[in-house]
Amino acid sequence: MSTTNTARTDLTVDAGATSLLRFATAGSVDDGKSTLVGRLLHDSKSVLADQLEAVEHASRNRGQEAPDLALLTDGLRAEREQGITIDVAYRYFATPRRRFILADTPGHVQYTRNMVTGASTAELAVVLVDARNGVVEQTRRHAAVAALLRVPHVVLAVNKMDLVGYQESVFAPIAEEFTAYAGSLGVPEITAIPISALAGDNVVTPSATMDWYGGPTVLEHLETVPVVADPSDDPARFPVQYVIRPQTSEHPDYRGYAGQIASGVLHVGDAVTVLPSGRTSTIEGIDALGQSVDVAWAPQSVTLRLADDLDISRGDLIAPTAATPSVTQDVEATVCHVADRPLTVGQRVLLKHTTRTVKALVKEIPSRLTLDDLSQHPAPGELVANDIGRIVVRTAAPLALDAYADSRRTGSFLLIDPTDGTTLTAGMAGTAFAEAAADPAPEGAADDEGWDF
User: Fold this and answer.
1) What does pTM read for this prediction?
2) Degrees (nearest 5) of the Cα angle 179, 180, 186?
3) Based on CB atoms within 10 Å of each CB, which residue in 372, 392, 414, 431 is the most buried?
4) pLDDT tens per residue across span 73-98
5) Angle between helices 112-119 and 137-148 (to 10 degrees)
């Protein structure tokens, strides 16, 4: 995996004060994750006076002398009462060097699925561990989710170093164990930092009590990790969201296809293919913010005009003819099951991929991942909440699907319950870090309701 700060200046923003980093935090219960986030916001002077006053008031009501910085993120009443994080909390803050969108995700095993939501768009994940407990099963789960979601940068924050005497001998084996585990999952960059979120050591300011550590603080690393990439490195993908046909006297023949560029760069004159139909045309014009432009790149929202009148609708994908994704009805993927109800073989689902939603059947569940040793438990029969496993899905209509390893946007999908719209499973097309799935199961008998394909 490569990142660059020297991308073409006409396509990217310089990785300075205006750059944006999306990152997620995760950790087991009572590892101090909410305190870390609160300390990060407080010490970087990203907390408003009235917010801090409210936290101080709530802390006094709970009999605490010092303000409980965890309350800056644990906003739900149930979270405050139980002392745990339940929902994903998004926080926006900035320093002179960079802007940040922080997704504070729950640590309890019951809410691991919420980490999938928070980390799905993250460029960095901060995984917290308690220095007294080291790497536990939930730590491995968080590392596995980060690896599955192709988060390119992972920070291991070894917290509560103040409770172990700030000893390097405690920090070093934890960092070594986690680095080896996450590396075996394919995480490309791992940075371990010893901290005390309660005391503020190595969160924003360097610790005066851990002179044996010469690396960056958490904030320093967040400010300097490279995240700006050249969009021209990736093949262009344009999921059609809406067809614009004003049919007015001013624009009697206007036909435009609106959406957000998922990846890559599009130019006027490019030869493109519309999928899944396979029809071809040329980009005749690109409209952005009410003006015609010659070039557009991800993640801009634009309207494309093609040289030919083609049958195109919401859910179709426009891609360069020279670099089209594969079109398939047999989707093999690694998934994280997020619903309370299990996912079973033969289950009818809806598969949502970019702007396209199609009927589908779960044809096979070849394996479930065992987090302790990363082995595959064969043919589990079902996946329950928080399980990570391999599935094979047959769709009613072809999908233009990239491998998730190649594109996080066009390689991801959701499985949805068709009866009530509940999200069941988050899927990543391809093998991810798991072993290759077995061949898809043979098709079953015909279904008179149109769910067997």
Assistant:
1) 0.79
2) 85
3) 392
4) 655 334 444 444 445 778 888 999 99
5) 30
